[in-house]
Amino acid sequence: MSAPDDAMSRVRRKRMEIFAFLFLTAVVMPVLAVGTVGSYGLGVWIYQMFAGPPGPPASPH
Hints:
Elements: H1 2-51
């Protein structure tokens, strides 16, 4: 009697594994990528507000 139940649990586990993979690749990773790049850009922007833009100092002439 446990054979059909075992087969159903395997099918359900495989379906959930595919769903988890798709969720991670389509939702979580893009959100992490955008958040990482965005927070780095915000940090550089705030740093440049205090330290000034990059490049050589202005010439005294």
